[in-house]
Automatic annotation (TrEMBL):
The lineage of its organism: Bacteria, Pseudomonadati, Pseudomonadota, Alphaproteobacteria, Hyphomicrobiales. Residues 129-319 form the DNA/RNA non-specific endonuclease/pyrophosphatase/phosphodiesterase domain. InterPro entries: DNA/RNA_endonuclease_AS, DNA/RNA_non-sp_Endonuclease_sf, Endo_G_ENPP1-like_dom, ENPP1-3/EXOG-like_nuc-like, His-Me_finger_sf, Non-specific_endonuclease. Residues 28-38 have a biased composition (Basic residues). PANTHER family: ENDONUCLEASE G, MITOCHONDRIAL, ENDONUCLEASE RELATED. It is an enzyme of class 3 (hydrolase). This is Endonuclease.
Length: 373
């Protein structure tokens, strides 16, 4: 059963109080207002002197000297003043724009995480690191906003040797109120679609992590098993051919309202998969509607930013972002276009039971064989 979640009007970005000019006694300065701790009293000569002017000599004929406040470090009160000053400087640095940091920079091009250019997307977000990918989860949509990977020829080869184990599970690192649950997808008519694909995972551990619901979005069943599967395979083959690709896969929510599973999990209207080839210095993205029978399009990174509100590769030059790289035709590798022509059948509890029983049996057999050999 699907409900509709109405998205409010776009939020206006907050205005940073920076670059404000102030005229002093010497020159105009740009600054960010931060309340600094009060200084210790300076000598009378220093108080009479301007902030950039030497103190007036006390006696005619004495050498010109710059007024200097006494060193406060030698007293307990002075140490407290220095501590407060250090805190103020830290706040000042935090207020200035800087590149976002991540605990797992190896998954991102140049170690830089995607930048959210639509401020609505930033609410209740939490970054998560995994063995072979990283993602940004949204508690507002209860889905990931994007997942980032570094695909190499070697990792794709290793992934093809890993047996698939559909071990979907809830992500306990997320607050309970912000995460999706397994029952959200039962009888929903949607697939549990990966952003970082299970087929990209080079080890059993990494593949098991990819089945975290933090990496899952509701996908149209025919789209997920047809066109989207073809896009995923196209990217893997391109990574094998090129050697290394950085990949960011994400969701787009457009329109005045979007579908929601059980009034909780928002259904993306579109999905994208952006690629960057560091050897050739080119980038581009697949963009496709989350519905059966839809056509995909190739877009530039700049064009994707305008659609999705995310700059997926913020470190690239503007010229690279404006030019879309040639992308392979994905339908060549889709798991049969008949999946898109068939109307998906509503899953019954018997279907779910048989699927889970089969999964548990296959896992038990594999674990037994590993224990023996």
């Amino acid at each position: 059963m699907r409900n509709h979640a109405v998205l409010g009007p776009p939020l206006e970005p907050s205005l940073a109080e920076s670059g404000i000019g102030r005229t002093g006694s010497c020159r105009r300065q740009s600054h960010i207002r931060v309340r600094l701790p009060r200084r210790l009293p300076a000598p009378d000569s220093a108080r009479r002197a301007g902030p950039c002017r030497p103190a007036v000599p006390q006696q005619p004929g004495t050498p010109l000297r710059l007024a200097r406040a006494p060193d406060p470090a030698g007293t307990a009160e002075g140490a407290d003043v220095l501590l407060r000053r250090a805190i103020a400087v830290a706040l000042l640095l935090a207020a200035t724009p800087a590149a976002a940091e991540t605990a797992c920079p190896e998954h991102f091009a140049d170690g830089r995480v995607p930048a959210l250019t639509n401020p609505k997307l930033a609410a209740r977000t939490l970054p998560l690191c995994f063995e072979a990918f990283a993602l940004l989860h949204s508690g507002a949509s209860r889905t990931p906003l994007y997942a980032a990977e570094r695909l190499t020829r070697e990792s794709v080869t290793a992934a093809r040797a890993v047996a698939r184990d559909d071990s979907f599970h809830e992500e306990d690192r997320l607050p309970a109120v912000d995460r999706s649950e397994l029952e959200d997808y039962v009888h929903s008519g949607f697939d549990r679609g990966h952003l970082a694909p299970a087929g990209d995972m080079p080890t059993p551990t990494a593949q098991g992590q990819s089945f975290s619901l933090a990496n899952i979005v509701p996908q149209n069943r025919a789209f997920n098993r047809g066109l989207w599967a073809g896009i995923e395979e196209s990217v893997r083959r391109l990574a094998s051919e090129r050697g290394t690709l950085y990949v960011v896969t994400g969701v787009v929510f457009t329109g005045g309202s979007v579908d929601a599973l059980k009034s909780r999990v928002l259904v993306p209207t579109q999905l994208y998969k952006a690629l960057y080839d560091p050897a050739r210095g080119e980038a581009g993205a697949y963009l496709a509607p989350n519905r059966a029978g839809a056509a995909w399009q190739a877009v530039s990174i700049a064009g994707l930013n305008g659609t999705a509100g995310v700059d997926v590769f913020p470190g690239l030059p503007d010229a690279v972002k404006r030019q879309a790289m040639p992308l392979p035709e994905p339908r060549e590798f889709a798991r049969g276009d008949e999946a898109e022509r068939r109307s998906p059948r509503e899953e019954t509890w018997q279907d779910w039971l048989w699927r889970e029983a089969g999964r548990a049996l296959r896992k038990a057999i594999r674990d037994t064989l590993r224990a023996i050999f």
